Amino acid sequence: MESGTVETRTESGEATNGARAVSAEKLDVRNPATGETIATIPIASPTAVAEIVTRVRANQPEWEAIGIEGRYHWLGKLRDWLLDNRDRVLDTMQLETGKVRADASNEPAYLADLINFYGTKAAEFIGEQSVRAHSALLASKKLRIQYRPHPVVGIISPWNFPLILALGDAIPALQAGAAVVIKPSEFTPLGLAEVVKAWKEEIGAPDVLDCVQGIGETGSALIDAVDFVQFTGSDRTGRKVMARAAETLTPVSLELGGKDPMIVLSDADLDRAANAAAWGGMMNSGQICMSVERIYVEEPAYDHFVAKLTAEVGKLRQGPDDARDPKDVGAMTSPNQTAIVEDHVEDAIANGARALAGGKRVEGPGDYFEPTVLVDVDHSMKVMREETFGPVVGVMKVRDSEEALRLANDSRYGLSGSVFGERERAERVARRVECGAVNVNDVLVNYLASDVPMGGWKESGIGFRHGEPGIKKYCRSESLVITRFAGKREPTWYPYTRSRRKLVDRLMPLFNARDWRRRLGLHR
Ligand code: NAD
């Protein structure tokens, strides 16, 4: 959506991406598990967005000044609030996403862990650094690097994990000393708004965290107002975000789509591999950027693996989830996404694929797509090339690990992947998968290893979250070169006399040559 217009709405008020803009000022939020409207929220105007950014910008210097420990103090209070109010937040999030409880409950747990991780690691990652000069010519200088935050970080987030993908990026930014304004997805604005309100009103923390509600143009207005943009969403929108940010030379970090491959070697534990594929492909209804979407199985293991995977997926319970009647697979959160999933599956079946489980949209109230296992697929099909982002996996038989790697790497995406097999062999194969993170004998788990960076290669993104880069990206490095002792002038300064130039000419090889003849000027 371009700035200044609300183009995605049709005459009936239905936005083309499935969210419902009731008017230019309001959005309806739906429960995808039932189709019911659960809230109507105001859309922030570009002026309102700019005003909010100005307000938190004014409070940022004080936030930066309280230091790493002072900021961890407040983030620690947020952690405690999330743990104490877990059920309240999960109730809201479940309503707006249609997730099953088990999938929703990962969010507060992840955030609490991330607060502790960055709170205890920030000093190591962004504390002032003392550097030893590489050359004796700089012996009189003290070298330091200090990391100063971008004053206001704007976070634009998607609908599949409304808290993790908004607060999960806000936590390191806040810990770094930035103020943060978040534009959550128009499909899932409620859970995040509840947490932000609690930060201000219940926790009473400094006024350096806020959110703005709205659609694409709200995101554009945020890009115009902030100093750094953290975007998570589709690669299509990512390109627009980068172009918009280029107008103000605002740095961006982009976490985009994926088409994650899983390689199953013949010596894998096939029970574990099949169970992992079922969970990694269907968890959160497959609406995870790192979902298992493509599976390549070495020939000797193929039949057993497919039988086990089909049996596991066939057992999954789907539908509206509640404590008395728990389910495994929830609803599709965005109606637009269900249409994409349906299109990919229909395209595959029309071109010769077979669905061994699932294969179609579920009729009735709510928005569901059956957990689906496709075989006889190939790389001419959308389901093996484009991001499906639904509960669908395509499985291919391959001759050997070389063919598996060739196919796994035959993608414009490179977010993450997994390899199952005897540990050493699987590790060797994993090192050759072209993506930002690979799990060996597990799936999705790299997201919990906040110690190591997570980010996309190729069209899956620019930049990283987690680890040292995940907090350093919110900072600008400021190098301090401090003169400890000195005379009235340096040999390189004015005046350029013959004797000073001669001295510099002698010193130059003395410090730069790596053999004594040159150092002493004897090589000619
Ligand atoms: P999306 O790109 O449609 O929207 C993401 C956000 O961008 C929303 O808040 C939306 O309102 C906003 N937006 C839309 N147009 C904009 C514009 N012109 N300027 C600024 N903001 C704009 O993505 P989605 O459908 O919400 O999420 C699904 C996508 O997110 C999938 O492609 C998925 O792979 C990706 N994703 C990536 C990661 C990751 O870490 N790499 C994680 C989760 C989801």
Q: Identify every distinct bound molecule in the structure, by name, code or SMILES.
A: nicotinamide-adenine-dinucleotide
Shape verdict: globular
Please identify the structural class as seen in this structure. alpha/beta
Poorly predicted spans:
1-17
- Please give the share of residues in helix: 40-55%
Distance between the termini: 68 Å
Q: What is the number of helical segments per DSSP (H or I, 4+ residues)?
A: 18
The order of strands across the largest sheet is: 13-16-17-12-11-19-20
Q: What can be said about the biggest beta sheet?
A: 7 strands, mixed
Q: Calculate Rg over CA atoms.
A: 27 Å
Number of DSSP strand runs: 23
Q: Could you tell me the strand content as a percent range?
A: 15-25%
**Average pLDDT for all residues:** 94
Give an overview of the whole structure.
The protein has 524 residues and is of the alpha/beta class. The strands form 6 sheets. The chain has a 7-stranded mixed sheet, sandwiched between helices. It is globular and about 90 Å long. Nicotinamide-adenine-dinucleotide binds at residues 1, 156-160, 165, 183, 185-186, 215-216, 219-220, 232-234, 237, 240-241, 255-258, 289, 334, 387, 389, 415, 456, 461.
From the structure above, extract its key features:
524 residues; binds nicotinamide-adenine-dinucleotide; six-stranded mixed sheet; seven-stranded mixed sheet; 18 helices; alpha/beta
